[in-house]
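Project standup — Tuesday

K.O.: blocked on the structure for the chain from last sprint. Re-posting the sequence here as requested.
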Amino acid sequence: MINEIYEYIKGMQIIDTHEHLPAFESERERHDVISEYLRHYFSVDLISAGLSRKDYERLRGNELGLMEKWNIVEKYWGAARHTGYGQALAIAARDLYGVDGINRDTITALNDAYLKSYEEEHYKKVLKDMSKIKVSILDREGDTPFDPDYFVVANNIDFLVCPGCGSDIMVLEEQTGVSINTFADYLRACEIRIEKHSRVSPILKCALAYYRSLDFAKTTKHEAEQGFKTLLGSGAHSRRPEQTYPVIPQFSNYLFRYITGLAQEKGMIMQIHTGIQEGNGNTLTNSKPTHLNEIFLEYPRMRFDLFHTGYPYHLELGVLCKMFPNVYADMCWVHIISPVAARNILSEWLELFPYTKINGFGGDYCLVDGVYGHQYLARRNIAAVLSEKVEDGLFSVEEACRIGKAILHDNPVRIFGLDCWN
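H.V.: unblocked you, prediction finished:
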């Protein structure tokens, strides 16, 4: 790796394109460090390695002492510690708390240091001072408040496209002032909701690949209305918030296109989950980026930011970015899914489509310490790939630094309209 490039990338301020952190630092729940570090991602590797779900729940609870937990998790932690998820946590332990390695000999010291983080401005230390993150885009549902010192928001549209229960409809009624009894009422409520979203942020988020295919086949308004009637019946949802609804493709296909059309007219951008789903089990093929091909054709003025490099469908996603001016590639999450894959993907993409379409980092964590470890890996990955390109003679060190700044800062500022943070 060329030191000049790495030092430049390591020292610059960056934009974080995707987070699930508590919206205020005061909302951080107090846990021991094992419970905290198993809140997100690394637990997937531990369960994949053989940790039972029953033991996982015990590790996340409060009835066991720290060493009792370590006795349960130790062999699985050792088996998974070299994965991207494991590396991110080890880096956080080292740089945030001065603990070299997470093991039986260090876990108590790590826990003691971690617990002290509740006594300081930990968000400022981790996100601003050490990670040099100018602003993070926070995935948000509804009208929940957030700390504007750290976040702008991406408003999640999943419950508009696929309401899951009666309370979703009731909340939508409260948010819009529309009493939803007919399909026309529902469409009007969605229109009001998108208008309200646009006043707060130009960014929308769709994570429906966790629940259904991204193939939003074209359906008629009549078919969608019949689906609405199947979904809500006679309006009894208003008296039964716990009532659950199935996914009805005719309804949700139409709603996704309808909402995309509304957003297009307002000049918004939609972040879409593609590729691997978090957790231990799902239908991976639901998330193929090429399912969205028809949508990109139908809404050429709508901008789409495709998440997670589409991994393992990164080849599809790269070609879509080459073909469509309104499609962008987001490397959020992927540097910890597989650091090696992230480097290989970026290396290919830099010679496949314009680098001005790549957003290089999104922490995508529920726990703030993980964000630090992730951005460390992302900076290292990007600097390594750019160094290889310089050594191959593709461009100069000066241009490599310029491209690195674009990927980690300038591109997301332009794409998401974050100029006010400059």
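K.O.: great, moving the ticket to review. The beta strands are 14-19, 133-140, 151-156, 203-206, 269-272, 303-306, 327-330, 358-359. The two ends are 29 Å apart (CA to CA).
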